[in-house]
Amino acid sequence: xxxxxxxxxxxxxxxxxxxxxxxxxxxxxxxxxxxxxxxxxxxxxxxxxxxxxxxxxxxxxxxxxxxxxxxxxxxxxxxxxxxxxxxxxxxxxxxxxxxxxxxxxxxxxxxxxxxxxxxxxxxxx
Length: 125
Hints:
This protein has a single domain (about 20-110), classed as Beta Barrel (Thrombin, subunit H). It is about 25% helix and about 40% strand. It has 3 helices and 6 strands; from the N terminus they run αββββββαα. The protein has helices spanning about 1-10, 90-100, 105-110, and strands at about 15-25, 30-40, 45, 55-60, 65-75, 75-80. A 6-stranded antiparallel β-barrel has the order 1-2-3-6-5-4. A hairpin with a 2-residue loop joins β1 and β2 (about 30-40). The longest helix has 14 residues, at about 90-100.
């Protein structure tokens, strides 16, 4: 069965939901802005320039916080494996958060640059 599941999702054993939500990464004493690009119970992909592979991080997004390890990074995008899997309901609630916020690509770009939205207020997680 696990072979069939693995085949249906490519290299991953668990499917991921595509997302586009602002997040924060705690890397030691530093807190970085990131965009959550996809999420599963076991890991995530984030847009976070300059993140190093093998870094221990804490991913904060929507209503969850989870520690993990950066498995790979291309300098812009990184793959994170969670230390402990999150509940599937957390994944679905995060997707609902995105739908409710209606976060657009332009809003994400401005948020990453710490700019203001069209109402003049700083966008925060």
